[in-house]
Amino acid sequence: xxxxxxxxxxxxxxxxxxxxxxxxxxxxxxxxxxxxxxxxxxxxxxxxxxxxxxxxxxxxxxxxxxxxxxxxxxxxxxxxxxxxxxxxxxxxxxxxxxxxxxxxxxxxxxxxxxxxxxxxxxxxxxxxxxxxxxxxxxxxxxxxxxxxxxxxxxxxxxxxxxxxxxxxxxxxxxxxxxxxxxxxxxxxxxxxxxxxxxxxxxxxxxxxxxxxxxxxxxxxxxxxxxxxxxxxxxxxxxxxxxxxxxxxxxxxxxxxxxxxxxxxxxxxxxxxxxxxxxxxxxxxxxxxxxxxxxxxxxxxxxxxxxxxxxxxxxxxxxxxxxxxxxxxxxxxxxxxxxxxxxxxxxxxxxxxxxxxxxxxxxxxxxxxxxxxxxxxxxxxxxxxxxxxxxxxxxxxxxxxxxxxxxxxxxxxxxxxxxxxxxxxxxxxxxxxxxxxxxxxxxxxxxxxxxxxxxxxxxxxxxxxxxxxxxxxxxxxxxxxxxxxxxxxxxxxxxxxxxx
Length: 499
Fold this sequence. Notes:
Elements: H1 4-15, E1 28-30, E2 33-35, E3 54-56, E4 64-65, E5 78-80, E6 88-89, E7 102-104, E8 126-128, E9 136-137, E10 150-152, E11 160-161, E12 174-176, H2 187-190, E13 198-200, E14 206-207, H3 210-222, H4 229-234, E15 237-239, E16 259-265, E17 269-273, E18 278-287, E19 291-296, E20 299-301, E21 303-306, E22 311-316, E23 325-333, E24 336-347, H5 351-354, E25 369-370, H6 375-378, H7 382-417, E26 431-433, E27 445-449, E28 455-459, E29 496-498
Parallel strand pairs: 2-3, 3-5, 4-6, 5-7, 7-8, 8-10, 9-11, 10-12, 12-13, 14-15, 17-24, 26-28
Antiparallel strand pairs: 1-2, 16-18, 18-22, 19-20, 19-23, 21-22, 23-24, 24-25, 26-29, 27-28
Keywords: Disulfide bond, Leucine-rich repeat, Membrane, Repeat, Signal, Transmembrane, Transmembrane helix
Transmembrane segments: 387-407
Domain Ig-like: 260-347
């Protein structure tokens, strides 16, 4: 008996919860569980034992989940963060939580969920995102969660569920989208959910058209327990007005119609100058009113959608070479998809330079146009592309200026060639004293200069007269008397050739 009593005492002590030596301040720790709820803490506490499998952090003031907050906790199975103020999750924050089975983020301030947010959670079974501020679920948001069985997205502000938003959720059995702002739900959105058993979509402002008609037919035909009879009656129509306040089951099948979109775009090709702004309207019609987006090289371009006019406005300010290329305007509604292509070219030359020398109608012959369809050119950065384009433009401008200079010199040379030696300046006037009775040539002249540097040519009688060609300068009447002569000419003056 004396041996049993200490053993029983030790057993009782072992069953009593004891705080762990590594337990964070203010928290309570039991075996592999840490409780830190309702403490007013603003961040995930440090010092949580690395072997912990369950953490309760609900009803606090945590605002973000950082990359380093959970790195040491690779054994976590359950993480409860509901009713905090979390608005940001760093990409890769859950990379170390490969064993996590349940994640509760409901009742926070999350407004955007991205594919990188849940990376590493390949064993996750249940994900709570209800009661946040999510407005849109993008394509492939839940990729990698192939074992997820329950996804709770109720009580958000979701207006659009992208076509591939739920791709990869092949094990999902329950999807709750109730109490959102969904207006339509396409067949392609639910197609990846091959294991779906329960679908909750009540209390949304549904547009009762062909999309919900498909949903009703699909439920009826497949006999799946996606919506109970009570839930089907709670599926109320908000529009069109003629079907407003009717439940989906009360609407006749021929009333659930859609008109596929039709897209118009003018012009389909456009050339703009570097630095200019651009505005292109993509007109779309159909029922329901199509949603319009612009895409370029697989990236969505910021566009303004006007639901009244059915126009998607593409705005580009301060156009650079990087903007050149092929754009695609896409209009979508539950009835189908329509696309149209727009080509943008960027003119790199500056009109302020070219217009000084050439009429505007001719400038395009010297201005390079870029459409950026080349893989080599598009692979460069915008700054490099712009520098290359500016360099090419400067070379083209230099060539134009060189041609203009050559042309101007050529015209001047032709004028000088057609003129006379007699139009030279006074400093270049040649005075020729002719002592012969016949014509002379320059080969018969010898040079003589006066004190002012004026040239004086006197006939050299020692050289024979070559030919009988006459002087290029006309004969002048009168006599020439040069001032400042080193030696006076005493012979009677004779007629002079004045050049």
